[in-house]
Specification:
Layout (H helix, E strand, L loop, with lengths): L13 H14 L4 H6 L3 H14 L6 H14 L3 H13 L4 H8 L6 H15 L6 H9 L4 H24 L17
């Protein structure tokens, strides 16, 4: 049972209504996570702003989804695995690529190094070693891209923790952390 209730967009008022209306207009739907975040318009606005800013990063949308999948699997967040599996498929990721991303693996070496670095950030709580940085640089990532990987991980850790605490009802085809990929 969801522990923090989702805001009904039909009865929302003020800043919450304004933000939920923007989400609906942009995506054609209003996911439960964002409806739940609307309990605090500041939280929803922060999430939307951070997400929008990363949309202008040098990392592709597909790679950002792959990072989201790796982070969600590491944090065992079923809501985020479900959402990012659906979004990844919409962006052209195959079911094999989605499964591999959950394991922080990829067929292409540079992508795999980036996913492994993201997974390391989660596992070490951001305490990447000199060797971790050297590996991701050797794979071809520059410092700006490394900063963007870190930011993408941070955004996804936030949503994972939010959904764990709220126990947000999954409104995407359900994917479970315990299924399909090793944690």
């Amino acid at each position: 049972m969801q522990r923090i209730p989702a805001v009904d967009p039909a009865t929302a008022t003020g800043k919450a209504k304004e933000l939920l209306d923007k989400v609906q207009a942009k995506f054609g739907l209003t996911p439960n996570m964002m409806r739940t975040m609307a309990q605090s318009p500041a939280v929803l606005e922060a999430y939307l702003s951070f997400s929008s800013a990363l949309g202008h990063s040098s990392l592709s949308a597909r790679f950002r989804e792959q990072i989201a999948l790796a982070v969600a699997q590491a944090n065992r967040c079923d809501y985020c695995l479900s959402a990012h599996s659906a979004i990844g498929a919409m962006l052209g990721l195959s079911s094999q690529q989605i499964s591999a991303s959950r394991r922080a693996t990829a067929e292409e070496g540079k992508l795999e190094a980036g996913l492994a670095f993201a997974r390391t950030l989660v596992a070490t709580r951001g305490m990447a070693s000199d060797e971790d940085l050297a590996r991701v640089r050797e794979a071809g990532y520059n410092d700006g891209e490394i900063a963007e990987i870190i930011a993408t991980v941070a955004l996804n850790v936030f949503t994972n923790y939010f959904n764990h605490t709220a126990q947000t009802e999954i409104d995407f085809p359900v994917v479970r952390a315990a299924e399909g990929a090793a944690a």
